Amino acid sequence: METKAIAFNTGFALIEGNHFEEIMWQTESLSPLDVLVEVHAISVNPVDTKLRQSASTDQWRVLGFDAVGEIIECGSDVSDFSIGDMIMYSGTEKRAGSYAEHQVVDSRIVANIPKNISIEEAAALPLTSITAYEVLFEKLGLIPEENGNLDENILIVNGAGGVGSIAIQLAKWAGLNVLATASRPETSQWIKQMGADISLDHRKDLVEQMRELNLTEMKRILLLHSTDYYFESMAHFLAPFGHLASIVATTEPVNLSILKNKSASFDWEFMFAKTNYDYQIDSQGEILKIIAQLIDDKKIVSTHTTTLEGLSSQTIFEAHRLLETNRTLGKIVIRVK
Amino acid sequence: METKAIAFNTGFALIEGNHFEEIMWQTESLSPLDVLVEVHAISVNPVDTKLRQSASTDQWRVLGFDAVGEIIECGSDVSDFSIGDMIMYSGTEKRAGSYAEHQVVDSRIVANIPKNISIEEAAALPLTSITAYEVLFEKLGLIPEENGNLDENILIVNGAGGVGSIAIQLAKWAGLNVLATASRPETSQWIKQMGADISLDHRKDLVEQMRELNLTEMKRILLLHSTDYYFESMAHFLAPFGHLASIVATTEPVNLSILKNKSASFDWEFMFAKTNYDYQIDSQGEILKIIAQLIDDKKIVSTHTTTLEGLSSQTIFEAHRLLETNRTLGKIVIRVK
């Protein structure tokens, strides 16, 4: 069907002005496992701003990797969902995103929204929750059960960002002692609010701050900010047989041998890899189902803080602008319907 | 007690002549979990030659990380072993090695030798078996059961070395399809004999050879030779969510970001890390017990090929010389008693 979408066709910096445009866009035809969604709210993520700057194409590109919407049509093989279901999803890099009034999405990567939160709160969840869940429970070897990892600890570098805010909550739910870093009084307070047991300042020497707490090593360290900058010090601080994980690409080669005599591992987490490579795709729907249950059970909360009204090139531009200030706390949601 | 040992006190290259010396050496006093062993046979490993070159000390250093011997005294808390037991072990970097007629070893890292093989064959097993077992089943996520990993495959770069020869056999036992590399007709034949399904030539382009086999990626790749040289091409060849593991330290920084969009992992395996850092030490005794059982059940074979007679500075020097030719096949054992 034809739908309104916000798109761009040449990568641009915000300083060049607003090159997002409102276009009429043809949604894809439904494959057997797809659903067609009327989008009610979307959220923006740092990956959106990166792609907006780098994507260079002759075709319109519709970004957006978080949405809540109502199913208005189901593919022939969809059995888990029905027309009228209000669902949430992050989507994939391979298809048109959620900056649109209607979107086609694979039903294996969606879940019904939690019962007792707002549409905006639900729209803030998918990308950050899937990423945080995957890295904690599929990469770092933690057990995805309430208090399933007592006596374990984790250091989350940049705990106040989107992924960090959910990762802190999931790690606390799973029973870990959580150290997280921030760099300003507001973000430090925020990570405490998310449940961090200890707040450190990642603009200062982290190793020194941990030594003051009598910590000489950590078995699990999650880098959510500049792997280039933190790799070496955190690799030295990692415990033997530990896991150092990151979601932020390196731009320079790293000294991997630091980890060698500790028989340690380095793990990348990239949530779009599953849909990009057709690898256990339905696990992302399962993860969102678990997240919805954890919200229903009040074990974790949405990190939504900011709402912009209406899908337009102006609200999308404003959302990108806010993200790029690096001063926002919590997730920015755009109410579409 | 006082015992004969072969030692050196300044790191040396073989070209400088034989600086191993026969000395009388005081074994350590037994801690509660230790046993005192009369050494019957030892084996040499590449790590020995590295330490001989680099170790610089004013004290005598006794190397040796593989032995079979008879227990002649037990520490007060040893309950799993008795005087007269013939055991095998690799030992640890932290204590005197097996180039000696008597040695003290922690009973948690030893096992009774297999029933139906020679002392020499048993002495060839510990270090390579523990390393191969740990990397396959503790790092690469394989299931340590016979045929427990059907439909899985692995590429072992440098399959003809000590660790590779056991890793091929353990991977075959565990049900994997095994691709291994060698560089000469003899080593290529050897890895087939160890059970490799496919033999590749690691002096030629590995990716091209795998493409000819219609393989475009591998989920598990084990580097047992020059991580510096193979990291980049193998990182590119690794499948999404794959694991690239290595036992060979890098000397240069590596481009870790190649693995990022595949959400993949890099794992170091270093067998001395457990005893160096007091981490699950008894797992190494357990591994050797499993290895002995697999030998008894004829599921795997010892890789022993060469025996030198008698513990002397000459036999130790000759063993190091043979290792450094890089032309030996199978393990070199020195019969001590």
From TrEMBL, chains A, B:
<dbReference type="InterPro" id="IPR036291">
    <property type="entry name" value="NAD(P)-bd_dom_sf"/>
</dbReference>
<dbReference type="GO" id="GO:0016491">
    <property type="term" value="F:oxidoreductase activity"/>
</dbReference>
<dbReference type="GO" id="GO:0008270">
    <property type="term" value="F:zinc ion binding"/>
</dbReference>
<dbReference type="Pfam" id="PF00107">
    <property type="entry name" value="ADH_zinc_N"/>
</dbReference>
<dbReference type="InterPro" id="IPR013154">
    <property type="entry name" value="ADH-like_N"/>
</dbReference>
<dbReference type="InterPro" id="IPR052585">
    <property type="entry name" value="Lipid_raft_assoc_Zn_ADH"/>
</dbReference>
<keyword id="KW-0479">Metal-binding</keyword>
<feature type="domain" description="Enoyl reductase (ER)">
    <location>
        <begin position="13"/>
        <end position="334"/>
    </location>
</feature>
<keyword id="KW-0862">Zinc</keyword>
<comment type="similarity">
    <text>Belongs to the zinc-containing alcohol dehydrogenase family. Quinone oxidoreductase subfamily.</text>
</comment>
<dbReference type="InterPro" id="IPR014182">
    <property type="entry name" value="ADH_Zn_typ-1"/>
</dbReference>
<dbReference type="InterPro" id="IPR002364">
    <property type="entry name" value="Quin_OxRdtase/zeta-crystal_CS"/>
</dbReference>
<keyword id="KW-0560">Oxidoreductase</keyword>
<protein>
    <recommendedName>
        <fullName>Zinc-type alcohol dehydrogenase-like protein</fullName>
    </recommendedName>
</protein>
<dbReference type="InterPro" id="IPR013149">
    <property type="entry name" value="ADH-like_C"/>
</dbReference>
<dbReference type="Pfam" id="PF08240">
    <property type="entry name" value="ADH_N"/>
</dbReference>
<dbReference type="InterPro" id="IPR020843">
    <property type="entry name" value="ER"/>
</dbReference>
<dbReference type="InterPro" id="IPR011032">
    <property type="entry name" value="GroES-like_sf"/>
</dbReference>
